[in-house]
Every structure is written in C-alpha cells, then in structure tokens.
Amino acid sequence: MADIRLLYAGLVPCLIYLWLSLQSQVPTWTWKSPDLRGILLDEGNQWCSGTAVRFPGQEGFSEMTDRWNTFDAPTHSAAISPATEADVVKTVLLAAKHRVPFLATGGRHGYTTSLGRLRNGRAIDLSALNEVEVDESAETLTVGGGVRWSQVLDPVFDAGFQMQTGICSCPRVVGVTLGGGIGRYSGRFGLVIDALLSVRLVTADGRLLTVSESSQPDLFWGIRGASGNFGVITSATYKLQRIASGADHGQGHVLMADMVIPAAQTAEYFKILELFNDSMPANLAVYSMIMYSEAANDAKVMTNWVYMGPESAGRAAMQQLLDLQPSLSLVRTVPWSKITASQGFGMLDAAFCQSAVDRSVYGVNVRQLHAATYQTVFDKMRTFYREYPEACGSAKALETWPNQATLAVPAEATAYPWRDAKENFLLVFSWSSSNPDHGEVLAEASNKLGRELRNNFSQTSGYPELSVFVSYAHSDETVEQIYGRDKLPRLVALKKKWDPLNAFAYNNPLPTDYPAKNGE
C-alpha cells in the first residue's frame, strides 16, 4: 500500500461596538502594524492561567499555526490559544481596538488560497476549547470550538448514537459544520448543519451571543453554510440520532467495501457510478479516488463504498461493484464510528490528515453524473503523472453521496445553496521538490490542470455555471459560484450588519455590498 502514502483587559465591548458603528462606512479595516508583543503580554489583559501566547521561534508557536496545506498559507507574527470563552472575547476585542488582522482556527485544515491574504497577522488557536459532552437524555452533542472529529466519534457511538460527519478525522467539527457539512450520512440525516441546534459566537465587535432558531435566527440562518464570515464560534450543540435496535438496521454498524480499480476497468466502473443518476439508495455512500499506482506506474481508482445497514442489504446495493472482482479488495463490517479510520484499507485517513504539505485544491458541485467526463479526467491524470512524477501525490476525489435527507430540508431554511448536488468533485494537487524553481513549475502545471479539470466537470455538471461547495473552493471563483445567486442578497445584508469592516476577511469572505459598487 505504498501508493496511499503518496497522498495526501479591561476592554469594554460597547466602546468597541460604538467605534465600529461610527466607522461602518469603511469597507474594510485599515490595518496597522502594532506592537503585538506589547499588546498581548500587557498584564491588564488578565488572561486565564491556561491561555498561551506565543511568538515566532518560541516553543509551541508552530503547534498553534502549522497548517494541513502550506501552499498560499497565511503567516502570523503572534499566536494566542485562549483557554476560556472569555479570553476569546478579549482577544477579538484587542484585535478590534488595535485593528490587528487575525484568523481563528482549530484544525487548520482549510485550504482556500484566500487564507494566504493574511500576512503577519495573529492566530487565534481554538484547540484548547476541547470539551466534548454527550447528553443522552437530550440526545445532543456539545463540542468546544477546537474539537476535531477524531475526538467525538467514539463518545457518540459509545452513548448509542450516530450523526453526520465529514470525510476525515482531523478537521474541526465546527469548521466542517460552517460550510454545510457534506458526507456519507447525507441521505439519511442530511447535512451536518441540519443537526446543528445552537452555537456560542463572538462577533467582530466582541459580543458573545447564543445563536439558534429562537435567538438571532437570521444569524443562525447565515452561519449554516456561509463558512466563518460572521464570528468565532466557541461551542456548538448538535442533535444526535439514536442507533436503532435490531439486525434490520445494522445496529450502528456499516458494510464497507474497499477496492482498487486498475486502468483497464475504470470505464466500466465509471458507468456504474453514472447509474446513480436515476436513483441512489439513501443508505449507500460512494467515495472514489483517482490516484497514482506506484506498483503499476499508472493511474488507478481506489474506491470506498459504505452501506449504513445490514450486510445482506449492503451486498445487494453493492452487487455491481462486487461483480467487477478487482484483484485487490476488502469487504467487512465496521462500527459507524470507525468509518474514517477504516476507509481505504485502513490507511486513507492518515494520508488525508498528513500536514505541512504543498497542496492546491479545486472543487466542483455535480448534479448530473457523467461517466465520459470521469474517464476524460482519469486519462488526463495518467498523462500528468507521467510528465510530473514529483506530483504523483496528487489525487482526484469523487464524493457520490445520497441526498434524500438533504433535499428534505427546504432550500430556504439555511444559507447552504447546493442541496440538489449529487456529487462533489475535489481535485487535490500535491507536489514536492528540493529545487524552488522546479517547485514553481510543478505549482504552475498543477494549477493549470486543476482549472482545466474543474472546467471539464463544470461543463457536464448539470448546473448552468460553475458551482462549488464553499469548503472546497479555491478562491478564484465568483461569490455567486460559491454562495449561490439566490442566497447572496440576504448573506451580504448579514455581513454588513455583523461584520461591516470585514474582520473575518480571509476564508472566502462575503462582500459588504452586492452587487459590488464602483466595479469592485
């Protein structure tokens, strides 16, 4: 399985709010270059004893700032890891008072190139907000703003519940949620945002709010699908799904099939995927990855099929895949909490979560599955691997998720715009070179092909133009292509109300005017 390793202080909130209100005609903050060391180490801040402040070169700084993706990554002149919600409020207030650009993160798994616009800013590392609480009587999960998926799967399962999740274990639960939260259970439970009940949120002016359907409902609408545009979330509460008893429901276990499809069988495999245009079982989820095979010195498809139910029903749903009988396959049942750890012969999640790698990522939404397009992309990747062997860690993922429960939620209920998507295509280009000049060549070739393949998929996607899931956006797309034309007027009004100076400006930011004024 060597192939897989190639992958992947006394500050007063109302004064700050008044200052922001008086400046609301300004579209963005006028950034300064303040003495961050003096600001953050001022004894008047009265940080909690567990709150850590670090600067470049100090022990712990890299742990608070290192990212999954190092391509077009942000840079930081200081980092703070608040141990309490109150210290998150203080640090946001300090940023507002001194007009210091910042980025609040936890998993640091985001990869949009807009993050790279932050230069010498301040990192707010939320990883110390790591509480995980399952309330069995209320059937809810509450997590701190820095909790990763790997920290919640077993506690939820052990308490007798299931929930929607992302595709890998290392991103933050909250981070995945804010984009919408697509994944294998979208046919049964919908998106992760559909399970979200409430959040605790720190606004750009330092107010701490509880946001839910009954408290700040407009803001609750916006945070469900518009990423981190409106504030720093310190905790979130989700509705859980109790595991049904009885063998007919799988008792919280799933049937999983991992297979490697060689180049000679890909056309046949892609035709099987195309059949899901007509119908796809709500309990079936398919993940397919075009990647390099070191053994064959060629491209291949590694696929992971998961059926959320009893083995007999799962085998029936997977029959056409099983009939391919590729030389490398593994079929077994696993607890739902072990899906991420087990996928890809038990090795894929570690590859997904390998950090500090140059990656350039592009995404496309698809509502019309098209086998010929899959094969075109596969053939182009074969050529790319031959021409650029240093980029053989690149891979293309087809996430074919059922959408019955996702579609059952009215489109206007949340800001998420792409409930009708049947598939998400994710192009992850990765390269390595000790020669900086050659590294630039690899980056240029990767980005050129990334845009080309994105266009290939967009042309047959069934959407009138390119559309992309915000968490998979590269950042060269238009705001309409990310947030949807129908959602933008309401989203922009919320942005202007809650973040008029664009403090949250680095993760595919929304504009504060729409349409843009003066040709902006």
Would you kindly provide a written description of the structure presented here, covering whatever features stand out?
This protein has 520 residues and is α+β, with helices and mostly antiparallel strands. The protein has 3 domains: 9-125, Uridine Diphospho-n-acetylenolpyruvylglucosamine Reductase, domain 2 (2-Layer Sandwich), CATH 3.30.43.10; 132-242, Uridine Diphospho-n-acetylenolpyruvylglucosamine Reductase, domain 3, CATH 3.30.465.10; 247-472, Vanillyl-alcohol Oxidase, Chain A, domain 3, CATH 3.40.462.20. 28% of the residues lie in helices and 21% in strands. It has 17 helices and 18 strands. Strands 15-12-14-13-17-18-16 form a 7-stranded antiparallel β-sheet. The protein has a 5-stranded antiparallel β-sheet with strand order 5-6-10-8-9. The protein has a 4-stranded mixed β-sheet with strand order 1-2-4-3. Strand 5 and strand 6 (140-144) form a beta hairpin. The radius of gyration is 23 Å and the shape is globular. Residues 7-28 have low confidence and may be disordered.
Layout of strands and helices, then pairs:
Layout (H helix, E strand, L loop, with lengths): L12 H10 L13 H5 L11 E3 L6 H5 L10 E6 L3 H14 L3 E4 L15 E5 L6 E4 L4 E5 L8 H6 L2 E2 L10 H7 L16 E7 L5 E5 L4 H7 L8 E8 L1 E2 L10 E9 L4 H9 L9 E10 L4 E10 L3 H7 L1 H6 L3 E8 L3 H4 L5 H5 L6 E8 L4 H17 L7 E6 L3 H5 L14 E8 L5 H24 L19 H5 L4 H11 L22
Parallel strand pairs: 2-4, 3-4
Antiparallel strand pairs: 1-2, 5-6, 6-10, 7-11, 8-9, 8-10, 12-14, 12-15, 13-14, 13-17, 16-18, 17-18
Family: Belongs to the oxygen-dependent FAD-linked oxidoreductase family.
GO molecular function: FAD binding; oxidoreductase activity
Protein name: FAD-binding PCMH-type domain-containing protein
